[in-house]
């Protein structure tokens, strides 16, 4: 068991030797005396662990016996670490010096907050927000995620427009700080998701139970993104569609489940039709397989759904960061392409 009174900055690695070599120096320097940097290795075969021992001897190494995916990999790694705060960090993230301090200071001053994230910017274009989290995430009525700084494919330039600390529904899994107590009480990430949407599911569960989440933009991190699966990859399409449906089933209030899932069925088939019209057969099949597997897997999530509803404050209703509108309608029909235009509109 690794023990520290600092933040445990935990990077889950799978055959990411080059990414570690490129980005780990900034994490070690930027975290300084505030964080213990740990690399949990998901059964890599590219020599990652040997490279760490040779080139980064101050970094703790936590080997796992095989690739458990993002969700279960973190569950197994964090079960072996005792720290007041965990910070789940992707291997393709560069950070500023002292980046942990604003996060820790805010969490220490606000015990009602379970988790937070820094402002996430693009490593390739540092003046732009990064797709995977921007300045904090939200959901629309039908489960479509969006961020301050990113709505679907529209990514904004960072001009200070989201520089205030703000409540969010979900914090990016690329750089997610969470209290150990809240992580343990929530059960961590859902291992059945394997990868994609698992951090949104975790954050929604925490929010339903009355805990809060925020973005602290005084802390900045720079994310490459797409390091595991590129956008448009059928495997990524499959996991996003399947896991989004499972997440909705687990967390939707009882009176919303049927109408929301009925609408989502038509929206998913519309997405499949778009892939068909583009002659993108692999992604068409990915959407259809995601819906099939959602129905096949749904019974195994019944107990988790009932537990979530029982622990939810006010039955899971009245979460303002789950915005009661259709993001698709706002974006495509009304032409509102930014967070500010959609939420204030």
Explain what you see.
The chain is α/β, with parallel strands linked by helices and 345 residues long. Helices cover 41% and strands 21% of the residues. It has 12 helices and 15 strands. It has helices at residues 17-31, 48-55, 69-78, 100-109, 180-186, 198-208, 234-251, 254-277, 281-297, 302-311, 327-333, 339-344; strands at residues 2-3, 7-13, 35-42, 60-64, 81-82, 85-89, 93-95, 113-122, 137-139, 145-147, 150-151, 154-155, 166-167, 175-179, 212-223. The strands form 4 sheets. Strands 2, 3, 4, 6, 7, 8, 13, 14 and 15 form a 9-stranded mixed sheet that branches. Strand 9 and strand 10 form a beta hairpin. Helix 6 (198-208) packs parallel to helix 7 (234-251) and helix 8 (254-277) runs antiparallel to helix 9. The mean pLDDT is 95.
Task: Give a quick summary of the entry.
This protein has 345 residues and is α/β, with parallel strands linked by helices.
Task: Give the tags.
345 residues, two-stranded parallel ribbon, alpha/beta
Mean pLDDT score, rounded?
A: 95
Head-to-tail CA distance between termini: 50 Å
Task: Choose one word for the global shape.
Answer: globular
Order of helices and strands: EEHEHEHEEEHEEEEEEEHHEHHHHHH
Major beta sheet summary: 9 strands, mixed
Helix content: 40-55%
Question: Got a strand count?
Answer: 15
Classification by helices and strands: alpha/beta
- Number of H/I helices: 12
Low-pLDDT stretches are: none
Radius of gyration over C-alpha positions, nearest whole angstrom: 19 Å
